[in-house]
Amino acid sequence: MADYDLVIAGGTVVTPADMFVADVGIIGDKIGAVGFGLRGRRSIDAHGLLVMPGGVDSHCHIEQLQSGGGADEESWVTGSTSALAGGTTTVITFSTQFKGHGILEPLAEYRRRAAKAMVDYSFHQIITDASDEVIFNEVPQVVASGVRSLKVFLTYDPLHLDDRQFLRVLAAARRTGALVTVHCENYEAIKWRTAALLADGRTEPKYHAWSRPSVLEREAAHRAIALAEMVDQPIQIFHVSCPEVAEEIARAKARGLKVWGETCPQYFVLSAQDMDRPGFEGAKFMCSPAPRDAAASEGLWKLVRDNVLDIVSSDHSGWSYETPVGKRLHGVDAPFSDIPNGVPGLGSRLPIVFSEGVSKGRIEPCAFVRLIATNPAKLFGLYPRKGTIAPGTDADLVLWDANKRVTITNRLLQHVIDYTPYEGLDVTGWPVSTIRRGAVVMQDGQVQAEPGTGEFLARGPYDLIRPTGNLPFGFDASAFQV
Ligand code: DUC
Ligand code: ZN
Ligand code: ZN
């Protein structure tokens, strides 16, 4: 008699800590057992494949509302399709705020849109206007609804917060038990350098990198960490592009601070050189922070191995290349400062990290699992439901052919964006099947999930992001409405 609805038989199970040949037995939407000789009503032969937790992408932009109306081109259906095609089963995306407005209405609208998801999902709440109403009234409601992370930008018009506003967000997070994630670049310095570059007639996409050198990311990361230390509020530094930024995080960790760092595949395989292609082509590679150089990429791998950078997310933020609503929004002669930032990456995240990391011998498979699933699940309060393979956890799995060699093309990634910055990149290692809460939702590149089958993941309080209790002079300024 069968004990399980589905058995994944004979694969090499990779958990965050261990790797061994076993069967995985699934009952309904949960893992029932990991063992030998398990009998299921259905069985999938996984001999020769790795069986890993479904990817958790804790930083991606899907159907994000835009200030001028409308939303990002990548919809919940197309974004989910790409995620599932690439082995990711959970995403954390963004509900945004428009300056002068609150956060409750956009969050309600965003939840309505996300109801079409085919992956499980949660949100970070972006704060662009730290008004009294938002900070003291709305943030507590949003956090209580399960959106337990706030996101701030230290640069970008019209998103950026000054230090006082940033402090108010840190304090609100401390009061409500949320994590703060930070886009670290120095706003004024980028504006100043951009003005000088444009004054000198340097307008092409490659000057995007010149406008925001790594020192400006390092400065902002240092400042974010210092202010978070003063408030005693845990933070995560988003999309670390180079070692000198990660070293700020390493120093903070060594001081006992709760500071975490994320990097993204673009910082492993792209460089500032990519933006120096003929004509407008360089726009395809423009994202912020800007990709650096090969030495920076290699340096990031060392910081991954040293556990300074513990998450690799996609920062999927797609803008099509050929359409008038994407990179060409302001025309092909637009100066770099008017070209939308961001690169697509939901579907390519796991293959690139696996290939560059595991296949090229930089990390072990268990470390890969930690980077792309376990650590994001832990940091954002989704673990152990997500991010591992063990009895009682959600049956989210990716079956992986570690030896399959693929040349990335846009078609394989199945997002709506009309290009990938990784076109032509050779990778070794590719997803064969994706299983989301017990259902096979991707097989050999065919995504077979219905819109609306993704679940909202409300995140409750969890220990990892509790403040340390170390405050200068023992004075908790966050207890006051200032
Ligand atoms: N940088 C961001 O901070 N967000 C999305 C796109 C990008 O390049
Ligand atoms: Zn960012
Ligand atoms: Zn982003």
What is the structure about, briefly put?
The chain is built from 13 helices and 17 strands.
How would you portray this structure in words?
This protein has 482 residues and is α/β, with parallel strands linked by helices. Strands 1, 2, 3, 4, 5, 14, 15, 16 and 17 form a nine-stranded mixed beta sheet that branches. The mean pLDDT is 98. Helix content is 29%, strand content 22%. The chain contains 13 helices and 17 strands. Helix 3 packs parallel to helix 4 (163-176) and helix 7 (214-231) packs parallel to helix 8. It binds dihydropyrimidine-2,4(1H,3H)-dione and zinc ion (2 copies). One zinc ion is lined by residues 59, 61, 315, 317. Dihydropyrimidine-2,4(1H,3H)-dione binds next to loops.
List keywords for this structure.
single chain; 482 residues; alpha/beta; nine-stranded mixed beta sheet; eight-stranded parallel beta sheet; 17 strands; globular; binds dihydropyrimidine-2,4(1H,3H)-dione; binds zinc ion
**Ends distance:** 65 Å
* Residue runs with pLDDT of under 50 for 5 or more positions: none
Coarse morphology: globular
Mean pLDDT over all positions? 98
The percent range for helix content is 25-40%
In percent terms, what proportion of residues is strand?
A: 15-25%
Number of strands: 17
Give the number of helices.
13
The assembly state of the depicted protein chains is single chain
